[in-house]
Specification:
By secondary structure, the protein is α+β, with helices and mostly antiparallel strands. It folds into two domains: about 325 residues, no CATH class; about 80 residues, no CATH class. About 60% of the residues lie in helices and about 15% in strands. The protein has a six-stranded antiparallel sheet, with no helix packed on it. Helix 3 packs parallel to helix 8, helix 12 packs antiparallel against helix 13 and helix 12 packs parallel to helix 14.
Amino acid sequence: MSALALWSTAKAAPAPAERWGILLRLPRARVVSRPRSQARHIWRIATIDRYLFRQAALRFAAVIAIVVVIMTLENGPRLAADLSHTDTPWALLWNLSADLVPEHLAIALPVATLLAVALTARSLALRGEWQVFATAGLAPARIMAAPLALALLAAVALLWNGLELRPRGEQRLDALYKDIATGAHGVVLPLREPVRLDAETTLVADGIAADAPGELTGIVIRRDATVITAARANVASDGQGGIALRLTEGTSIETRADGSVRQMSFGALTLHGRPPGLKLVAGNLRHRLDRLDGAALWRLTSGAGPAAVRDAAGAALLGRVEGAIFCLLLPWIAIAVGVPPRRRPGGPALLVGVGLIVLHLQTAALVEDRWAAHALLANALHLAAWTAAAWGLSRLVRRHGDGAIDLFIERTIAVLPRLFLIGAPIGRLARRFTARGMGGTPVPALQPVGFRNR
């Protein structure tokens, strides 16, 4: 049901108090008529609020799902390459993708809030329902009640994700990558490439046995002056980041100092080594703080540790809170970029809104890195700047009408070809005067000039 139908239905239906007043013929009807009218008006507004919230919530859920799926598919090839030599790559890929969902939500929640409100406002404007609200006397600030409620839910979810879910996901990722590096899910060894087991031992494996995924075939090992070959080798982890290599059906050839060669055949031989597996990157202080939840960051901030650590922890905590508050500004930006011009579809302004979210993420990271010592003041100024930007966009739309940003983009695109037409002859003249002097004679080439130290 559209907003126009909801408004007309709510207007036609008398309130229960009116029906009882008519039947009982209560005295002093004029005294109670105004409260009845106010109650009926409040009921109509609540109906429209539910209608707007339902439309925006459906788009909100859809955008979150789409963004999370896109980012998961984007990271899929990189994760699959890291897990190509493990025993259960698909199960590990699923676990890694699940642990990355909170990180994706940190981007998906602001984008979903913006697009949900913007697309809802655009849909209402294209169907003429946005003008119905203005005709009914609803101020833009009153229409924002439902989008602000959605933004408040998104802000709470973003804060919870930043203080609890995302740090836990980072911790699980670190633990899983550590297990992979220590060989708990299969030893990671490249094929047909030299692998250093230790300072004196190098291994080259030709392939993996088809009947035993944990065994290598075509083994060649060089240790000092000894070369060992084997048909097969069973690789297992020793639980401490190293491997135990059990060779079967092999030959050892040792070249002695006097030039003689000693050859020996063996049925089984076990060697130990520590090949370079997946290297875990410890990261800087900021990356280590990403693994801490809100309570841990607060303990670091209020503790007696080094000043640099306390400042960085406070900056990380305030940055997560500032990002959640920024979500409350997104409905105002969404209305400014979502409502199209009259009798035009619009749409390019939505890219401006998404670009503003990306810009906020970049500037928030800059504030956290550069001004950690003054984190409270820096985040307050950062939030004030974005509040002023949201207010400026709303003011621009109120002054120049709905779709002002779309119209500006359309006019800019229309002017660009004219600028190119004007710039082409100017460019030709510039190239001409660069190649030849003003008097028609060629400009002499510049000669290098030497300088003497005095």
